[in-house]
Amino acid sequence: MTDTPLRLVINPVGEELAAARECEADVFLATYGNTVEQFEFEYGPYQDNTTFLAVLESNGEAAAAARIITPGPAGLKTLNDVARPPWEVDGLRSARAAGVDPARTWDVSTIAVRRGSGRGGLCAAALYHGIIYGAYVNEVDYFVMIMDSHVRELVNSLDISTHPLPGTSPGEYLGSPNSTPLWGNLRRGLEQQRQHSPDAYRLIFRGIGLDGITLPTDWTWRQPVEPGRAGASSTSP
Fold this sequence. Notes:
Strands 1, 2, 3, 4, 5, 6, 7, 8 and 9 form a nine-stranded mixed beta sheet that branches. This protein is 36% helix and 22% strand. It is α+β, with helices and mostly antiparallel strands.
């Protein structure tokens, strides 16, 4: 265990964005065999509506990172990808059946936490706090995601409410042998967590217990522009 301070950053740019991408690439290559080329093919179409959160070490390395896709011309990747095998369902119809409004939805596309730091659980909790509280502040109502079963077990342990998208079930996705397309209602889920798991609510929503992590002072979500992508804004199964 190390006492080195950590920082949670939303909308990282420059070297911080590069660190977030490197963390994502390293974790997903080691865990699912996903290559940089595969990521570019899968996520490139959503680049203009993509951003990251990162938990950064004092040396600038990302200990954890999450990729978020916001509504845009390309749509949400989760709702597009459920049209592929093994699900082959209409993502927009499935979302409507669940009561999800894609225009008020964030797609939590990747969550990556490096192993071996001794603070994996703390870094994961910081990412979940960033996603949940950031969505709340920015008036997002819903989440969608395609989540590996092991990650979902951790999310369930924190009483973060998710539900399978109608017409889907667990299946193989981008190297994960068992992933499920999911959706969640932010405010209903927070109320359920507050009532049934108050300790998890304090940690994940209010950030109480994230000791040693400096949290953002401005949670307003602004799409950053990467160098070389003038006029385009950018930001894990």
